[in-house]
Amino acid sequence: MLRNRRAEFVRFFGTIRFDGKEDFMRSVQQGDLGLLQHPASQELLQSKIPARLAYVWTDGTPRVVPIWFHWNGKEIVMATPPKAPKLKALAKNRKVSLTIDDNTFPHKVLLIRGTARLEPLDGIVPEYAAAAERYFGPEQGQAWVNQLRSMVSSMVRITITPEWVGLIDFQTRFPSALAG
């Protein structure tokens, strides 16, 4: 059934090319941290697309916020001012999920679940400065960080070590509803 759906997809959208690594990555199950090595995951982790951080508010309702991130090769690192409302909720319940997805078909969607670690720091979190450079470019990123220094004297580093990873790329990895 999966092959039939893929064949329908190919007829409608065009040829899908697989190399040896993509064939291997198709066999990696959702939830496996090895999915972080998939080319589509690496592309999203290095992109200028903000992550969407999902967490549970103190009243039990779900929240999602866009947020810059830095991938250091093993963790997602974000930063926020110490008075950010999300910190109150994250201190109460550190279980989070985030997604990084693009807007170009065939869509790529990276899903990560983990536990947030909060660390107050003086000054600008270094990974935030690295993210600013990635999002804005070296000159404008540095200008933004310099401006931010005049607005905040400290930040809170939010680090998420992936505990579960999912990937959909509509080429080698389809949503479970299409997989049969």
Question: What this model shows, in words?
Answer:
This protein is α+β, with helices and mostly antiparallel strands. The protein has a single domain, classed as Electron Transport, Fmn-binding Protein, Chain A (Pnp Oxidase, Chain A, Roll), CATH 2.30.110. β5 and β6 form a beta hairpin. One of its GO terms (cellular component) is cytosol. InterPro entries: F420H2_bilvrd_red/Heme_oxyg, Pyridox_Oxase_N, Split_barrel_FMN-bd. Keywords: Oxidoreductase. This is Pyridoxamine 5'-phosphate oxidase-related FMN-binding protein.
How are the secondary structure elements laid out?
Layout: H1 2-13, H2 20-26, H3 39-45, E1 51-56, E2 62-67, E3 70-71, E4 76-80, H4 85-92, E5 95-101, E6 109-122, H5 126-136, H6 138-149, E7 154-168
Antiparallel strand pairs: 1-2, 1-5, 3-4, 4-7, 5-6, 6-7
Number of strands: 7
Strand content: 25-35%
Radius of gyration: 18 Å
The CATH level-2 architecture is identified as: Roll
| CATH homologous superfamily caption | Electron Transport, Fmn-binding Protein, Chain A
The strand line-up of the biggest sheet is 2-1-5-6-7-4-3
- Kindly state the percentage of residues in helix: 25-40%
The SSE order reads HHHEEEEHEEHHE
Structure annotation, total helices: 6
Mean pLDDT: 88
- What is the structural class? alpha+beta
